[in-house]
Each structure stands twice: as structure tokens, then as C-alpha cells.
Write a structure and sequence with these properties.
about 140 residues; mainly alpha; 434 Repressor (Amino-terminal Domain); about 60% helix; DNA binding; Transcriptional regulator
């Protein structure tokens, strides 16, 4: 996950006064999973990270740091706490379309730009700019 900062997650948990096992229990995830995230051994799934952020009274953007001017479509989705199928359902577009748009592999139609930006709560111009960054990123750079 682009921008995930394990140290921010750990610091947020510690500020909350919750132990790792207690936060894992409250969020409904495994204690070992939380440990792996906090140590940077693995990167979280967005839906599980959202549960942890909610349990901490935090936003995903408190833990996942991607400057707005560098965000790609997938970053906006992650910050909203959504998986691709969830965004597709909200925006009434296929999961395949969401994935291809996020990677810059399919054209962003007017209709899809309107639906996806609305589902994410960002302006169309912001979403289009993120899409253009995905389309024009250097070869081999993950989207």
C-alpha cells in the first residue's frame, strides 16, 4: 500500500493506550497481523486497516501518507477505506473498470470520472489529475 507508515500506526495505537492484542480484538483482526503491519513486515489490506483506524478513532489518512499532488486513483480509494469491488459497487462500475482506471490502462470516460469521483468524495478535476498521473507514471512504477 503506497504511503503506509508502520510507525504512524504504532504511535497512534500507543497514544490510544491500547495494547496490540486489545486493538486487534476491538478491530476484529489477528494480533499477529497487527504486529506484522507495525513492524513493516507486511502491508495491510485497506478494509482491515479501515477497521483498525476506526477502532483508534483515526482516519486512514493519519496512517497512510501520500501528498495530494502525488495521489493516484488507487490512493484516493485507499484513503476512503474501500476495496476495488466496494468502490465499483458504490460507483456502479465494474471492478475490472476500477482496476484498469487505477492502473491507467483504460480510458477514463466522462461517465466513469463522474461516478468514481462522486463515490470517493473528490472533485472530477482532482480524480482526473490522479488518473493522468497513473497514465503518465514511469514504466515499472506501481499504481
Amino acid at each position: 500500500m503506497r504511503g503506509f507508515d508502520p510507525s504512524r500506526l504504532k504511535a497512534r495505537r500507543e497514544r490510544s493506550g491500547l495494547s496490540r492484542p486489545e486493538l486487534a480484538r476491538v478491530a476484529g483482526i489477528g494480533h499477529a497481523t497487527l504486529y506484522q503491519w507495525e513492524t513493516g513486515a507486511t502491508s495491510p489490506q485497506v478494509d482491515l486497516l479501515k477497521r483498525v483506524a476506526d477502532a483508534l478513532g483515526a482516519k486512514i489518512s493519519d496512517i497512510v501518507i501520500v501528498p495530494e499532488a502525488e495521489r493516484l486513483p488507487g490512493d484516493w480509494r485507499v484513503l476512503a477505506g474501500l476495496l476495488q469491488p466496494q468502490l465499483g459497487k458504490l460507483a456502479e462500475v465494474s471492478t475490472t473498470t476500477v482496476a484498469q482506471v487505477e492502473r491507467g490502462q483504460a480510458a477514463l470516460t466522462e461517465d466513469n470520472a463522474r461516478k468514481l469521483s462522486a463515490a470517493l468524495g473528490v472533485s472530477e478535476s482532482v480524480y482526473r489529475a490522479a488518473y493522468e498521473r497513473a497514465r503518465n507514471r514511469p514504466a515499472g512504477t506501481p499504481a
